[in-house]
Design a protein that fits this description.
The complex is a heterodimer of chains A (about 350) and B (about 280). Chain A has about 350 residues and is α+β, with helices and mostly antiparallel strands. Chain A is built from 8 helices and 20 strands. In chain A, a hairpin with a 2-residue loop joins β4 and β5. Chain A is elongated. With about 280 residues, chain B is an all-alpha fold. In chain B, α3 packs across α13, α7 runs antiparallel to α10 and α10 packs across α14. The chains are: A alpha+beta (about 350), B mainly alpha (about 280).
Chain lengths: ~350, ~280
C-alpha cells in the first residue's frame, strides 16, 4: 500500500494505492503528475507530507534504497553499454554475481522478445526496441513497484497501441504495483485499474476508468476523458425546461432559475434525418468519415455539438437534422463546474 | 565545375603545405642541429639533408649531464600534477554542475575559480618562492606539483563543468533508481560519457605542466629537482650557447607529449569539438 500527501507544485495530494494495482496519473502537461512520480522515486524532495511504501515512511530514504524501478520518457538507456549490460546494470550494482546476472537478463529479454539485441548498443535500436529495453531493465530487478513516466509517448501511433496491450498483459503476469503517468486518456482508460485525474497539482478524481467515464466528478474530468470530448451546453432552467439558445430540453429536479451546464457524450446523441416528436432541430456543420463510424459536427443555435453516427450516415453541409438525446445519460454541472445531482 | 573544383583543391593543398612547412620547419631544424657536428651546425650554406650525423650531443646531454634526471623529474611532476588537478577538479566540476547550492553559489564559485587564472602568473612568483622557502619545499618536486596543480585546477573545473552540464540528468537518475550510489553512478555512468572531455583536459594540463618554465626556474635550482625546460635553458652559459645539447634534449622533450596526444587523438578531437558545438 502506498499513501502520500503533497507540496505546492503538487497541492494536497493524497492517494492510497493497493498492492498489484495499476494506477494511472492522468492530466495535461504541467499538472504535477511527473513531479508526483519523481517524489515517489526520491528524485524530488517532498516539501510537506509523507510517502509510505509497504507501510514504511520513505521520505528520508535515498532513491537507491527505495527498491522501485522507473521507466523514463526518454528511456535513459546508458549509451556506452550494450543492451545486456544496460539490463544487467541494476543487478551489477547490487553485486549479484555474473552467471546469475546473465540468467536473469536472458530470461527478461526472452519475455520481451529482445534476445537478438543483447549485444548491440542503444543507438542502434529503434524507438520501440529501446522502450522494451527500458522495460526489461525495470523488470529484471523484481522491485516493489514500477514507476512509468509516459513511456509510450515517443512511439508512433500504431506501435503505441500495440505496446499498450503488451504492457497490460505484462503487468498482469507480473502482478507488481505500477504507477503510470500519461496525458493520453486512451492509455489511462485501457491500462488502469484506477485513474487519478490531476489538474494544476490537485487531484480531481480517483476512481476506476469506467466510473471516471460514466460519473465524472467535475467538468474538467468529463472533458478530459473520452474522445471525441463530451459536449457541454451552458444554460438555465426555466419552468421545468432547460434552455440554451435554440436548444430546449424538458428537465425536472432542478430549482427554477438555476444556471446549469449539461454534458452529453457524442455516442449518446442520436442523429435523425427526419423530424421526431421530442427531437431537437440542428444544422450539420461538417461530417468526418472515420471508416467505422461518422463524426457529425452540429450547430444548435450558438451551441456546437459533436455526435457519433453509424458509418453509413451521410448529410450535406448546412442540412437540417434532428437530435435525440439519451436523457438518462445526461451529466449536470453547476456553476462551479462540479458535478451536480439531478434530484429527480 | 570540375575544373574549378580541381583548382580549389590544388590551392587548398598548397596552403596546407605551406602552413605545414611553417610549423614543422623549426622542428626539423632542431632535429638536425641535434644530430650535426658543431662544424656543420654553423656552416654556411647549411647542409639541409646531407651531413654526417653524430650522437655526441645526445651523449653529452644524457650521460655527461643530468638531462635524463630532468626528464624523469618533468615526467613525474607533469603526470602527478595533472592527475591531482583532474581528480579534484572533476569532482568539483560535477558538484557545481549538478547540485543546487544556496545564494547562487554555483555561478559565483565557478566565476571565482576561473578568476584565479585571470591575473599574470608572474605576480605570484616571488610570494610562492617565499612560501616554499618557509615550508622548506624549495628545490623539491613537491613544490612544483603543488603549484602546477593549483594552476591547472581552474581550467579543469571550467572545462569539465561544461561537459557535465551538457549531459542529460536522466542517465544519472536512472542509475540512482537502479540502485547505484551517487559515486557509483558518477564512476560507471557519467565518467565514461565525458571521457573525451577528460582526455582533452588531461592533454592540455600535461602540456602546460611539461612546458612550464617560470615557476620551475624560480622554485628549483638543483639538478635533482630541475625540470627539462629549465635544464635546456641552462645551456645558455656565459661563454657560449650549447645549441647541440639543447637541441638534443629538446628533441627528446617533445616525444612524450607527442606520443600521449597521438594515443588520445580520437578522444581529443571529440573533446575539443564537443565544447565548440555546445554554444
Amino acid at each position: 500500500m502506498k499513501h502520500f500527501g503533497g507540496t505546492s507544485v503538487v497541492d494536497d495530494l493524497s492517494l492510497e494505492i493497493h498492492e498489484g494495482e495499476f494506477v494511472v496519473l492522468l492530466g495535461p502537461s504541467g499538472c504535477g503528475k511527473t513531479t508526483t512520480l519523481r517524489m515517489l522515486a526520491g528524485l524530488e524532495n517532498v516539501t510537506s507530507g509523507d510517502i509510505f511504501i509497504d507501510g514504511e515512511r520513505v521520505n528520508d530514504i535515498p532513491t537507491q534504497h527505495r527498491d522501485v524501478a522507473m521507466v523514463f520518457q526518454s528511456y535513459a538507456l546508458y549509451p556506452h553499454m550494450t543492451i545486456a549490460e544496460n539490463i544487467g546494470y541494476p543487478l551489477r550494482v547490487r553485486k549479484i554475481e555474473k552467471t546469475e546476472r546473465a540468467t536473469r537478463v536472458n530470461r527478461v529479454a526472452a519475455m520481451l522478445e529482445i534476445e537478438s539485441l543483447l549485444e548491440r548498443k542503444p543507438r542502434q535500436l529503434s524507438g520501440g526496441e529501446r522502450q522494451r529495453v527500458a522495460l526489461a531493465r525495470a523488470i529484471v530487478r523484481e522491485p516493489r513497484a514500477y514507476l512509468m513516466d509516459e513511456p509510450l509517448s515517443n512511439l508512433d501511433a500504431r506501435l503505441r497501441v500495440q505496446m499498450r496491450g503488451e504492457l497490460k498483459r505484462l503487468q498482469h503476469q507480473l502482478g507488481t504495483t505500477t504507477i503510470y503517468v500519461t496525458h493520453d486518456q486512451a492509455e489511462a482508460m485501457t491500462l488502469a485499474s484506477r485513474v487519478a485525474v490531476m489538474k494544476k497539482g490537485r487531484l480531481q478524481q480517483f476512481d476506476t476508468p469506467m466510473n471516471i467515464y460514466n460519473r465524472p466528478a467535475n467538468r474538467f474530468v468529463a472533458e478530459f476523458v473520452g474522445s471525441p470530448s463530451m459536449n457541454f451546453v451552458d444554460g438555465k432552467v426555466d419552468a421545468g425546461i432547460f434552455v440554451s439558445d435554440a436548444l430546449q430540453i424538458p428537465l425536472s429536479g432542478f430549482a427554477n432559475g438555476s444556471k446549469l451546464t449539461i454534458g452529453i457524450r457524442p455516442e449518446h446523441i442520436q442523429v435523425l434525418s427526419e423530424p421526431h416528436n421530442a427531437a431537437i432541430a440542428a444544422t450539420v456543420y461538417v461530417t468526418e468519415l472515420m471508416g467505422n463510424e461518422t463524426f457529425v459536427f452540429l450547430s444548435v443555435g450558438s451551441n456546437k455539438l459533436i455526435a457519433r453516427a453509424p458509418a453509413d450516415f451521410r448529410a450535406e453541409l448546412e442540412s437540417k437534422v434532428w437530435l435525440q438525446f439519451a436523457t438518462d445519460k445526461l451529466h449536470f454541472f453547476d456553476q462551479k463546474n462540479q458535478a451536480a445531482d439531478n434530484t429527480d | 565545375m570540375k575544373r574549378i573544383e580541381n583548382r580549389f583543391n590544388f590551392f587548398r593543398i598548397l596552403c596546407l603545405f605551406v602552413a605545414l612547412l611553417f610549423a614543422l620547419a623549426p622542428v626539423y631544424w632542431m632535429l638536425t642541429i641535434a644530430l650535426k657536428t658543431e662544424v656543420d651546425q654553423f656552416a654556411i650554406p647549411p647542409p639541409w639533408f646531407v651531413f654526417t650525423p653524430t650522437l655526441e650531443h645526445y651523449y653529452d646531454a644524457f650521460v655527461t649531464r643530468a638531462f635524463g634526471q630532468y626528464l624523469i623529474t618533468s615526467a613525474i611532476v607533469a603526470v602527478t600534477s595533472t592527475a591531482c588537478a583532474l581528480v579534484i577538479g572533476t569532482l568539483a566540476a560535477y558538484a557545481l554542475a549538478r547540485f543546487e547550492l544556496p545564494w547562487r553559489l554555483n555561478q559565483r564559485l565557478s566565476l571565482w575559480i576561473l578568476s584565479t587564472r585571470m591575473f599574470p602568473a608572474i605576480v605570484t612568483a616571488v610570494p610562492l618562492f617565499l612560501m616554499m622557502r618557509d615550508v622548506r619545499l624549495l628545490n623539491t618536486r613537491a613544490s612544483l606539483i603543488i603549484v602546477y596543480t593549483a594552476f591547472n585546477l581552474p581550467f579543469v573545473v571550467w572545462m569539465m563543468r561544461g561537459f557535465f552540464a551538457d549531459l542529460p540528468r536522466d542517465l544519472e537518475e536512472a542509475a540512482l533508481v537502479d540502485g547505484d550510489s551517487r559515486m557509483g553512478a558518477f564512476v560507471r555512468v557519467v565518467l565514461p560519457l565525458v571521457a573525451p572531455g577528460l582526455a582533452a583536459t588531461a592533454v592540455f594540463c600535461l602540456i602546460v605542466s611539461w612546458n612550464e618554465f617560470l615557476f620551475a626556474l624560480v622554485l628549483t635550482q638543483t639538478d635533482a629537482a630541475m625540470t627539462l625546460p629549465v635544464g635546456i635553458a641552462g645551456r645558455v652559459t656565459q661563454y657560449e650557447i650549447k645549441w647541440g645539447v639543447m637541441s638534443a634534449a629538446a628533441s627528446v622533450a617533445i616525444v612524450p607529449i607527442l606520443v600521449f596526444a597521438l594515443a588520445l587523438q580520437r578522444y581529443l578531437v571529440r573533446g575539443l569539438s564537443m565544447g565548440a558545438v555546445k554554444g
